Amino acid sequence: MSSDVSRADILRPIQRTTKAYYVALGVASLFAGIWAIAWIYQLYHGLIVTGLSDWGTGGGVTWGMYIGLFIWWVGIAHGGIILSAAVRLIGLTRYQPVARLAELLTIGALMMAGLMIIVHLGRPDRVVWSVVLAFPRTIHTSPLIWDVTVITMYFVLTATYLALTLRYDVSRLRDDLPDRFSPVYTVLTLGYSEEEDPVVQRMVWWLALAIIILAPLLLHGGVIPWLFQLLPSMPGWYDSVQGPQFLTIALSSAISGVIILSYSFRVRYDWGHLLTDDIFRGLTMWLGLFVLLFLWLQLQQIISGVFAPPIAVAAATDAMLGEPLYWAAIGLAVLVLAFSFITVVRPAWFSKERAVLASVAILAATFTEKVLFIVEGMMYPGFGLYRAVPGSYFPSVVELSTLAGTIAMVAMFFLVVSKVIPVVELHVVEDKHGQARSDRGDGEVNQ
């Protein structure tokens, strides 16, 4: 990173608003509004407006794109906070400029994951009756309630993690921040004193440790896949490989999201010296590693499903392998892996724009794979009560609008948040300037 990084750089998104910003906000608001209209339409007419249908005479699946979106957004959220926690816990200072972007991505993605639960329930009041009031009775036996619990826990952990680091930045940048958000800054810095900084640093370190430990055990490596892999009646899901598979998808998707966000901020705010090519190259290498693990685990599932498997498992695997969209997703992942490998062998082939395209490809691949995972898993249950009824599913316009709407709302989240708080930590500037002063001092001593 260049030593000319300054406070003015990280304040630029807050202080500079252009026509392009309002255009982006307008486009995101338009897609979010379309989704809102579609959801109101669904609330009025019921879930019949979706491509979902009941088992039995309906001949289809009761879970579809909504649950696929839920898994996708949860994966992005969990991978994002793991990336940020790793920066603090094991000293990956190379990626410090993107740590807060990863934290904010976690917040935005978790909100969308929670929204998908509400949307899929059909009526918002069911959150009260089926989740909140039923919690004491179901927490011991319901993987769905486990999901809600860990998502809530991670939202609290991430929000606390973010708020603690923001206190330092806001207190020192307060004179340069807009007065219209004074109530927000007052709450963030309530009771702040410089004496708390070492204590906060220790708290943040322990939070990062908790996040790193809990992620593979309880989140996208544990509770989320348990919702599926603990159901022996669903042979397409019942597989112990789901935990690591979900975790690789989460990390791949989150790194892709961070790459896209970082590129957007770099281009828009002239952050080439802040979000350097070296950061993008490193993130692309990590992306390649997790895509390799994703493909390897897919191979494990395929081999288990085609080499003398139980009849029900064979049926689910044949359905997956016969779906062109599945091979399209795998093909995208292979191309991204090849790109990551080529950039190691021939660094001149690397470019930030290609890294962004690779990130978009992975997000499309992981989303497609997760929706197919849900649909094919439900289409081929182990029990044969309704097997005579042919099943089919294709997302309706209402469901497709939800995909566009949630992406738009996350974009709106970043557009708004970037006008209120710094999306890059002040420590990035201070640490670099401190290193530059140290380097100059060493040079003077040598002279």
UniProtKB/TrEMBL annotation:
Membrane-topology descriptor: Multi-pass membrane protein
Keyword Transmembrane: yes
Chief subcellular location: membrane
Keywords linked to the UniProt accession: Cell membrane, Membrane, Transmembrane, Transmembrane helix
The keyword Phosphoprotein appears for this protein: no
GO cellular component term, pick one: plasma membrane
InterPro entries per record: Electron_transfer_protein (IPR052049), NrfD-like (IPR005614)
Pfam (any one): NrfD
Transmembrane segments: 21-44, 64-89, 101-123, 143-164, 204-226, 246-267, 279-299, 325-345, 357-380, 400-417
Localization in the cell: Cell membrane
Family (UniProt): Belongs to the NrfD family.
Entry protein name: Polysulfide reductase NrfD
Species the sequence originates in: Natronosalvus hydrolyticus
